[in-house]
Fold this sequence. Notes:
The structure is a homotetramer.
Chain A: E1 2-6, H1 11-20, E2 27-32, H2 41-44, H3 61-67, E3 70-73, H4 80-89, E4 93-96, H5 106-113, H6 120-123, E5 126-128, H7 135-139, E6 143-145, H8 149-162, E7 173-178, H9 193-196, E8 201-203, H10 210-222, E9 229-234, E10 241-248, H11 255-265, E11 272-274, E12 292-299, E13 304-311, H12 315-329
Helix pairs in contact in A: 1-12, 8-10
Amino acid sequence: MKAAIIGGTGYGAIELIRILHKHPYLEIGSVVSNSQAGNSISESYPHLSEIIEQPLEKFDAKSLSEKNDVVFLATPSGVSSNLIPQLMEVGIKCIDLSGDFRLRSATEYESWYKHSPADDQYLKQATYGLSEIYPEKIKSAKLIANPGCYPTAASLGLLPILKTSLADYESIIIDAKSGVSGAGRGLSLSSHYAEINENIRAYKLGQHQHIPEIEQVLSDESDRPITITFTTHLVPMTRGIMCTTYVKLVENVTTKEVQEIYSEFYKNKSFVRVRPEGKVPATKEVLGSNFCDIGLHVDTRTNRLTIISVIDNLVKGAAGQAIQNVNLMNGWDEWTGLQDIPLYP
Amino acid sequence: MKAAIIGGTGYGAIELIRILHKHPYLEIGSVVSNSQAGNSISESYPHLSEIIEQPLEKFDAKSLSEKNDVVFLATPSGVSSNLIPQLMEVGIKCIDLSGDFRLRSATEYESWYKHSPADDQYLKQATYGLSEIYPEKIKSAKLIANPGCYPTAASLGLLPILKTSLADYESIIIDAKSGVSGAGRGLSLSSHYAEINENIRAYKLGQHQHIPEIEQVLSDESDRPITITFTTHLVPMTRGIMCTTYVKLVENVTTKEVQEIYSEFYKNKSFVRVRPEGKVPATKEVLGSNFCDIGLHVDTRTNRLTIISVIDNLVKGAAGQAIQNVNLMNGWDEWTGLQDIPLYP
Amino acid sequence: MKAAIIGGTGYGAIELIRILHKHPYLEIGSVVSNSQAGNSISESYPHLSEIIEQPLEKFDAKSLSEKNDVVFLATPSGVSSNLIPQLMEVGIKCIDLSGDFRLRSATEYESWYKHSPADDQYLKQATYGLSEIYPEKIKSAKLIANPGCYPTAASLGLLPILKTSLADYESIIIDAKSGVSGAGRGLSLSSHYAEINENIRAYKLGQHQHIPEIEQVLSDESDRPITITFTTHLVPMTRGIMCTTYVKLVENVTTKEVQEIYSEFYKNKSFVRVRPEGKVPATKEVLGSNFCDIGLHVDTRTNRLTIISVIDNLVKGAAGQAIQNVNLMNGWDEWTGLQDIPLYP
Amino acid sequence: MKAAIIGGTGYGAIELIRILHKHPYLEIGSVVSNSQAGNSISESYPHLSEIIEQPLEKFDAKSLSEKNDVVFLATPSGVSSNLIPQLMEVGIKCIDLSGDFRLRSATEYESWYKHSPADDQYLKQATYGLSEIYPEKIKSAKLIANPGCYPTAASLGLLPILKTSLADYESIIIDAKSGVSGAGRGLSLSSHYAEINENIRAYKLGQHQHIPEIEQVLSDESDRPITITFTTHLVPMTRGIMCTTYVKLVENVTTKEVQEIYSEFYKNKSFVRVRPEGKVPATKEVLGSNFCDIGLHVDTRTNRLTIISVIDNLVKGAAGQAIQNVNLMNGWDEWTGLQDIPLYP
Lengths: 345, 345, 345, 345
């Protein structure tokens, strides 16, 4: 089978290429970049020299569908809402790595993203691709809205406790820290080395577009409306997200009991590793891999649960989960092409 | 006037030397390091070459008191509890940068620090040196327990709102991020470059020895017992602490109203800068300086206040505040020797 | 086939594990660490959790040879010189990643390494495992001295020009820059984060133990004694080596002509990529991969050739080349298990 | 006395502000930025909040000369060649931190900088401001061409040996490494955090515009034409330059003898520190300071001298040396406002 990648000069596409290159059943068909069409991708990314030398293509839905079996869209927000209708028209399955199809409500999208939403008829066809939670829906999906990086780390960290009756649903605070690659290869002062290095910066307080996405999945899974406090920080590293999440508990439980709830919840999941009591994961322990590692601590003085969940934002937070979803859609083992050990140190 | 520095080969001492070198009224008398006595400090720290070439001395309380007017102790925890009684005996004022005299309760100290506390009679004589909050007590103090780095950032961020009736006192969560220099120059896997670089790590969940110190000052200033949730993270940078602090509000107020409360609270304080509405500080904006910068955001959806407070852990979190305290003790302007602009970028 | 790894808690062993995990024909048999025997390796390296949980073993030559087909030694210098005789005794092939068997002269070893050399009878049996240069010898070797990280980058950069008559053999200067992981996981001030971050440091000027190794291979291949100037620098990154090498040319040639010499020299080599004229590689373009990328520039003003060669010190500079050598020894494609795209960004 | 700063939103200007703020005799009069005129500089640089709140001004030569006694130009190349004639017309002294007036030959400028040079009549009036070498000329100068960052580190490292008869003048190779701040605050892929972090990159091989500047000063001081090989590298740090310089010696001398030549050469110079035999400086040992530290090693095997010279590119390589020059011009001690200890760690 062949896959097309749209958005061929961004970090998301590059990570898709890296993983697809080692996928046994899925091979790269087309790489699309309107701005660089005709050039080799290795001109922009010399690490691909002598590996991927095929020319970048212009977007053309029909031609893509003829040469490929599935399309990954790794485009900035506001782009795939225009491209996906054309692609679905020609009958090809789409995995959208942008935020355009994640929120069910077009109004909500517009109020957080500050530009026009996708057409409602396509929004309705989208399946939210949080692989560990919605494997069945994903298997039969034609359009996957691949989750955001923060929502992946936050949801996987929170859902096991929210599915019990132990959590105070109004108490959720997610303090998130991210490396810089999440903002893409575009140029801005907030990705300038001298401004980021030896620095931590909080940004978009109360305004991050991942807030409604996290609330949507938490609300869906808790059967009640959930409102969260969510703060994002930029830390001086390239890859990695850590969510430090705080939840008030309504009963007295020990760390060990919570740890067992989580281990049980994720017992058949290839990519979620729950650390034993007394241990918490660091972001580097998942670098370059599709893992989401989770550590837990109940503070008996305040009866608050602290959840540490970490992912590589470009893998489990983007390209890796996208490929995991395609694996599910095709009935392959979900870890196909994704079983590598994290790069450490 | 002359100052002695004990603990002469640690980062705290080195930072004291850097600042004292530009202090107009206070000059370095003795630098003490038992392990390196007789050597020049520039052998361990070549950046001091041709600037500080005096030999390191052995500790001797009497001789120190004859040659100096004040003593800074920048020693690991558990050391100054033994040295300070000897120094007070010979009548010299002491500024302790370690945690040994910060907690009023010896029992509390022992349970968090896991070794023997200072003698009660000396604990009673210690003044907690949070300069902005206790300037009067500091002026007449003979022994200053200089605040910890995290407690300084956390307390300065929290106290203005706690002094109003707006805060839910049971809701306080402090998510703290620190550079690596806070752990000192000692060798451990957790300061190994390859383990820290491109990584975030949470540590000592619910067990950090700064928890009782923060609770003590918050409780004192709120006239009620305060229990907090406090999480510390190591981020890949050398200097800087950010506390992201969450407090539930019991009334509806706007960010602007809270910003005004903070501006008013700190209006005559040289070293606390409250950012205007819509702005939050980054750690690099205080690098190398004694500033504590604060930014505020009220999330009207959850009625929670998020406070961002940043310091340089080695300056306002250690050596800078120590010198600010000596300035206060001597009736000098508190910013004497400390008025430099942060190093940016 | 099964491989044993000795030195199981160092970065070299960890990287061997990462690569062997994806090798189709070679599987991890034993991981040996005398100091940690009985423990799971994931206690020291949580990124291996749920992947490698087998207990670490004590060294026992006989038992290793029964359970494994080949042994990798990723031990500090001075260790494998003792272990390898025992292993060869029981007839198992050895790949030594340390420096113990790289220098043919025991005297030379002692004078640079400052401790006892391996026994001469074993030194004589060792094959220097620079895969691109000695594939035939490697195929039939029983003991491989896997090249050092700096010697790999330096030799691959220099050999094509030295094999022509264009180079002034007395003019060679290699200015090398390395990330910190090359020094291993051991604790020292020179791997302390706060000392390395935001810093460059030159070290061991004229005394680095890789000098005689580089000179040996350059001399062998040039059929004359070569003496080099070699300077090593530590830069604030975890992985990566760049050699910037300067050679005076004895004839006038263009960059393009030199580029063609290199392209021709490496035309059938999977892992050496020669950049086109006008381009030079950066270390990150080979991160996590077995590539050695090379860029060239002839300065017509001085008639000097500048060669930029980069590798990942833990892959092509250690574990990757070791596995490439085992591939050669077994008649497998040399890129087996090593064909991954570098991790970028 | 008052100083104007032109180029008020770049890193050079920001560093001038930082140092002038602590200068006892020189105070900031005007800060000029045409693009941001009317705004407070702290909007772009919040670390200056409550310290520098004066509005940015538009450029006006006459008004600047009325309010200020000296002008610093920290503008991109090609700007000050237009502004300085206007400023000299109104009789104010100028310190140009850009490259526009450093090369005596307009033709040479055009061929390396690829745009129009300054007018010859002004080029003739410029004094090259390498403070340690030309103090007398600087004292009476009206227009200072402040040296580039690389030329400062390279020249101070090379001149003592070039002034003896020990050096082979045709053998000079300078391998230079720089932090990212040298490229300024402008946006480009080569200052994007994710592209720089965990990476070393060589750039502009044989084409860097500092080559003719270095050659000019070396030739002047050696009384013969000097041609060098010069390679620049970008390393993942914000500040700091290291030049590793190689010179063939024509006689046999020891490291100790060379060290004594250097110590003698710089014995009355406040800002050049020559390390003792066996020690070389790291860039962090001069961070934030005006020092240039130098270490030396003679390799007796090749009779080559290796010189390590380090500076902070924004201080001794730009703003600090500019202020040192104004100190000289005014008969003040050259270290006025510049005597701070480097920030370590």
